[in-house]
Backbone:
């Protein structure tokens, strides 16, 4: 019976689609990172194919090569991608070099309002220059660094009791980063079910952007700022403020005292592996992993809990991830690509997107009364999205990131120099880059 | 019984055998670990501590060849019962198969580019080697050294202008571009190797043929080529192995259409993290052809890896 | 037979053309045969090299199509030579080169020496030992990261089995002091068979008669090794060093997959640094200068070495 209904619905959709799309059927290629949410997008897009008659192709590139490959594609003027769900930091370069289509007129013509999306995602994924109403993307996938913890371990009475004697408070979700470190240190080297476990899996990867995406969660909360709010590109005393130094020292102490041995080159994938295999009590990771954690046979089904990045002395922030969807200026199928974005922005599609495991950035979805309770991690996602900060999105972001990666990894993992020296080094490198760019 | 001073004693042989076999076994462990990982479940593949005994499964191979979507309960119910064994494996994980993966296509690209460049390389290389071997080519030694020196350039160093050049010619991310590139890289090896093989063919055969009224061309393909067939075959396989395994150019110059398997395999992603069983399965399948060649070719290995400098 | 298409082409060649071909001089044929190869090498190797040299004097950046390209003279070269990171990567590369070559030559020669004792089944075991070098280096690097994981990888547990050291007590990739060895071990695992094969060829090229003569002179086995075996195998050993040297100077795929250059810059080999400059920062002019310097270095060292090798051969 159910099958019958579905088939009728499908036939109806086909009919409507057939009537409404006068345009020629086209082949569209969408490029994104190869990760879990991408598989969900394939499923979601079947509805678009049905409605428009266009055929969707997908090109998914794994994270460690995503930036290299896609920027290579944009810079070489390739026509591989019609639609690109590009990382948030690329928007400056792509906008200034005319590689993304500007979407303002299209938004206006189709009644898509940026005010309908989570403000942080609009700033983070769509605008260039930041803070101005010039849009080059539609927020597609909200993402943010947060924490996963082993609820089943936290709930054990003997562990509860021991923690209480040691720290004089109950073992639970940490309110501050200091508390988080206490918990991680408490679990470090502990014997649980006959296995030695460790505190936290954190980001330390060297090759692409890993350690930067991790260390910033500590830096922001201890008082690091990218620049003088009153004077753009003025770095001295903001990047290397006393607070920033304390934050960096915190991250190193967390790495030195409360992470698994050998976690020196870890990013999303390695952190998940460590968490799922029961090596660690806590995991730092982008929110996209949470649906996978929830469905995992070892750690899912209520064994895990989620919390937003805890506060530090200077406030509570979390590193923004996530992407907006853009139309590649070089594409031969711009109209069809715009149709896709128009379809994707619909509230009903966005609701389905969330159901399949995609983090919708549409207010109508996340502010729905049922949203917070729809998944165990939904509330944490909302809390985290309210406190995000992002790395530079300048055209020179890759240079800035590479300098940061080198300085941070040298200090945190390789243990060379002091935190102050590392951040002074960042100021020096970044100042040089901005000077070369003519911004200073 | 004849006694030879150069024949090692029984004890020496036994000791040498034990040492070599132990080395071989140690060196095989990482390889066997890769193959075994391909038959583990994702959970077993990252087990802490690692497991040696496990329940073998084909999940890695299923994941390698399919794309899957994490399905909601309604979707699972609506999709009906699984129809095939691989469908069943996906369903057990709460996913539905949404289509074939890119691995097959990447593998096919490796085949097209690998065999295409090898074939082109053999045609050009044999001709050039024949000329260098039989004719007085002006500046012969300089040309030969020039050909060899092209092999010394780090691929990353020439990748920038090649990238720019390919971009202007529209060869970026095309099969043709990669075939030309790998052919050029492999030509140095094949010219040197093939010249060695052709040098060994007695020139009297051709002279006899020429006297019989053959043209130079006829003498070349009717007399020299059959004689050099073994040499050409083994050279071809070395070119193929290089093109098969190449990574640096492939990762920089290809993306959607012409990417080969080596840049693709290390990056296969499962639910959340890296899908180690699928990565291992991909590596295993990719290894099989080269392993077969190695076994077939073991007598010619030496000559190939030394640019023909070592004679059998 | 694979020749049949060619034969058919030959049979189908019209008489007129055949006569024309017959009319060609050997010299012309030689050029027809050599020209395509030279042309392809010029187009794909030499032309880009010249282009690189040209770009190395400019401030060109591929990702800034709107910026004016300026001639900056030797500025890029000056910046490279005064960049401490470049010297650091050179040191890392030298350390990697010296140790991989030393280990591979020692183990490879020892293996070849043992295999040359012709024990039963030596052929089969030689083939098995050769397998690692048939793998794709990128895949090897990727899998060694997995093997080196202290908790879920095999390496630390094998070390524990052999030495009793706690597997959690060390991390091959994470430790500044161990990481350079992690890449050396993986490379040695992969490429020792290569050196072994060349050494084996060298050992087999020594005629039995020389040993027989030495035996008559009652030279000890030890003396025979130092006066006959080693000197006669030396050109082959040197050849192996040359090939491994060139290949490992270019090393990129295995290490980039294994450590990504970390921790810090500990295993950032020159190729990895060059890739970052060229394809992540897109400083095309600067990285072109970098590439030119690398090429000059490797070409210069290889030429000197080849001269030395020829001298040894003549002896």
Residues:
């Amino acid at each position: 019976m159910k099958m019958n209904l579905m088939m009728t619905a499908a036939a109806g959709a086909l009919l409507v689609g057939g009537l409404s799309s006068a345009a020629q059927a086209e082949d569209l290629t969408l490029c994104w990172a190869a990760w879990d949410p991408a598989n969900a997008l394939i499923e979601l897009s079947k509805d678009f194919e049905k409605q428009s008659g266009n055929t969707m192709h997908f090109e998914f590139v794994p994270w460690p090569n995503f930036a290299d490959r896609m920027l290579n594609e944009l810079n070489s003027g390739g026509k591989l991608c019609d639609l690109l769900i590009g990382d948030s930091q690329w928007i400056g370069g792509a906008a200034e070099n005319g590689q993304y289509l500007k979407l303002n007129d299209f938004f206006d013509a189709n009644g898509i309002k940026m005010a309908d999306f989570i403000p942080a995602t609009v700033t983070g994924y769509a605008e260039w220059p930041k803070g101005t109403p010039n849009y080059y993307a539609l927020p597609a996938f909200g993402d943010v660094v947060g924490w996963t913890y082993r609820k089943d371990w936290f709930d054990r009475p003997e562990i509860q009791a021991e923690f209480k004697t040691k720290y004089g408070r109950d073992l639970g979700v940490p309110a501050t980063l200091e508390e988080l470190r206490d918990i991680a240190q408490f679990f470090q080297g502990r014997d649980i079910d006959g296995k030695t476990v460790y505190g936290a899996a954190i980001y330390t990867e060297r090759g692409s952007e890993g350690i930067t995406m991790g260390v910033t969660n500590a830096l922001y909360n201890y008082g690091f700022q990218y620049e003088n709010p009153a004077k753009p590109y003025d770095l001295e005393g903001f990047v290397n403020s006393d607070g920033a130094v304390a934050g960096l020292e915190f991250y190193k102490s967390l790495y030195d005292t409360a992470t698994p041995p050998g976690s020196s080159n870890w990013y999303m994938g390695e952190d998940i592996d460590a968490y799922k295999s029961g090596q660690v009590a806590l995991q730092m990771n982008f929110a996209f992993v949470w649906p996978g954690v929830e469905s995992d046979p070892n750690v899912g089904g209520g064994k895990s809990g989620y919390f937003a990045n805890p506060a530090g002395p200077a406030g509570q922030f979390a590193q923004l991830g996530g992407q907006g969807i853009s139309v590649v200026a070089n594409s031969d199928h711009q109209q069809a690509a715009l149709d896709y974005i128009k379809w994707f922005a619909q509230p009903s599609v966005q609701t389905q997107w969330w159901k399949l495991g995609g983090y919708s950035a549409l207010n109508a979805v996340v502010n729905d009364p049922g949203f917070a309770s729809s998944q165990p991690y939904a509330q944490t996602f909302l809390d985290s999205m309210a406190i995000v900060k992002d790395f530079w999105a300048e055209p020179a972001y890759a240079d800035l990131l590479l300098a940061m990666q080198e300085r941070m990894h040298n200090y945190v993992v390789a243990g060379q120099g002091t935190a102050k020296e590392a951040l002074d080094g960042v100021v020096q490198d970044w100042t040089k880059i901005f000077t070369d760019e003519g911004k200073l | 019984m004849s006694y030879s001073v150069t024949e090692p004693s029984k004890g020496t042989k036994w000791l040498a055998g034990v040492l070599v076999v132990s080395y071989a076994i140690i060196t095989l462990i990482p390889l066997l670990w890769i193959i075994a990982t391909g038959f583990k479940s994702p959970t077993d593949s990252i087990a802490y501590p690692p497991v040696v005994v496990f329940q073998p499964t084909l999940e890695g191979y299923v994941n390698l060849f399919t794309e899957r979507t994490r399905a909601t309960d309604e979707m699972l119910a609506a999709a009906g019962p699984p129809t095939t064994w691989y469908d069943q494996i996906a369903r057990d994980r709460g996913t539905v198969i949404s289509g074939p993966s890119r691995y097959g296509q990447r593998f096919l690209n490796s085949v097209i580019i690998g065999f295409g460049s090898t074939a082109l390389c053999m045609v050009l290389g044999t001709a050039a080697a024949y000329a260098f071997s039989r004719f007085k080519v002006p500046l012969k030694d300089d040309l030969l050294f020039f050909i060899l020196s092209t092999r010394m350039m780090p691929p990353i160093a020439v990748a920038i202008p090649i990238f720019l050049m390919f971009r202007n010619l529209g060869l970026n991310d095309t099969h043709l571009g990669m075939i030309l590139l790998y052919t050029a890289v492999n030509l140095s090896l094949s010219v040197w190797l093939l010249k060695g093989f052709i040098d060994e063919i007695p020139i009297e055969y051709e002279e006899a043929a020429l006297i019989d009224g053959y043209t130079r061309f006829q003498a070349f393909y009717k007399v020299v080529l059959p004689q050099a067939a073994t040499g050409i075959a083994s050279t071809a396989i070395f070119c193929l192995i290089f093109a098969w395994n190449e990574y640096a150019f492939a990762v920089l110059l290809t993306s959607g259409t012409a990417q080969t398997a080596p840049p693709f395999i290390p990056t296969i992603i499962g639910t959340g993290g890296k899908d180690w069983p699928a990565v291992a399965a991909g590596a295993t399948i990719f290894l099989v052809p080269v392993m077969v060649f190695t076994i077939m070719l073991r007598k010619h290995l030496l000559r190939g890896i030394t640019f023909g400098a070592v004679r059998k | 037979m694979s020749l049949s298409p060619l034969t058919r082409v030959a049979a189908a060649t019209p008489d007129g053309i055949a006569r024309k071909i017959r009319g060609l001089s050997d010299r012309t044929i030689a050029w027809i045969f050599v020209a395509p190869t030279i042309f392809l090498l010029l187009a794909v190797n030499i032309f880009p090299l010249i282009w690189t040299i040209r770009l190395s004097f400019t401030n060109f950046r591929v990702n800034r199509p709107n910026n004016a390209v300026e001639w900056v003279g030797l500025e890029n070269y000056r910046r490279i030579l005064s960049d401490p990171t470049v010297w650091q990567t050179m040191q890392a590369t030298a350390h990697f080169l010296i140790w991989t070559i030393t280990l591979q030559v020692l183990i490879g020669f020892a293996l070849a020496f043992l295999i040359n004792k012709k024990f039963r089944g030596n052929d089969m075991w030689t083939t098995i030992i050769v397998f690692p070098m048939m793998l794709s280096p990128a895949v090897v690097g990727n899998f060694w990261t997995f093997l080196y994981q202290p908790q879920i990888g095999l390496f630390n547990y094998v070390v524990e089995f052999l030495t009793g050291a706690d597997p959690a007590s060390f991390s091959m990739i994470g430790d500044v002091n161990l990481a350079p060895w992690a890449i050396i071990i993986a490379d040695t695992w992969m490429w020792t068979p290569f050196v072994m094969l060349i050494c084996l060829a060298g050992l087999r090229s020594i005629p039995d008669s020389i040993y027989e003569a030495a035996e008559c002179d009652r030279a000890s086995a030890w003396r025979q090794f130092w006066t006959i075996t080693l000197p006669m195998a030396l050109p082959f050993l040197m050849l192996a060093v040359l090939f491994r040297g060139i290949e490992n100077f270019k090393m990129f795929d295995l290490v980039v997959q294994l450590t990504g250059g970390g921790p810090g810059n500990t295993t950032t080999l020159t190729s990895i640094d060059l890739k970052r400059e060229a394809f992540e920062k897109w400083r095309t002019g600067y990285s072109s200068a970098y590439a030119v310097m690398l090429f000059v270095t490797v070409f210069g060292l290889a030429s000197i070495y080849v001269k030395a090798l020829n001298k040894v051969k003549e002896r």
